[in-house]
Write the structure tokens for this entry.
Amino acid sequence: MARPTPSSKVASTTAPAALKRLRQLSYLLDSAIRVPGSEIRFGLDPILGLFPGGGDTVTGLMSVYIVFEAARLGVPAATLGRMGVNILFDVLTGTVPVLGDLLDVTWKANSQNVALLEKHIAAPVESSAADKLFAVVVIAALLALVVGVATLSVWIVAQVIGLLS
């Protein structure tokens, strides 16, 4: 019988609580509000995204937290890469005023990332040292992306206000 690795021990002891927390977070960001008379659901992500810089920063950091937890639970590099691409698409499209927020209603990056984590937990694949290094790189790059987009958004708003005054 194979001995459990340290990362599988972490995943097996903390996965249920972490998964519950991440499901609640993704629900809040992606699906907490239902449009009356329809099946359309959205969360705080598109609402907060209406606030230039700050809203996308807050929701982007929450999205990166989901990836961080997935990395901590031993998700392999390939899955972390897919999770990163989901956030990349979400953050970059969120920079387009109104249209990006409408896309947030349909593109539920956080829910997709939690589903990827659930798939890993259901059939775990042992992660390697390279996976852990990749996780650090992905998380650092996503944090830089979120901060960079927020900085750019604030700068653009300042420029527009400067033109109007």
In short: Confidence is low (pLDDT under 50) at residues 1-5. Residues 6-164 form one domain.
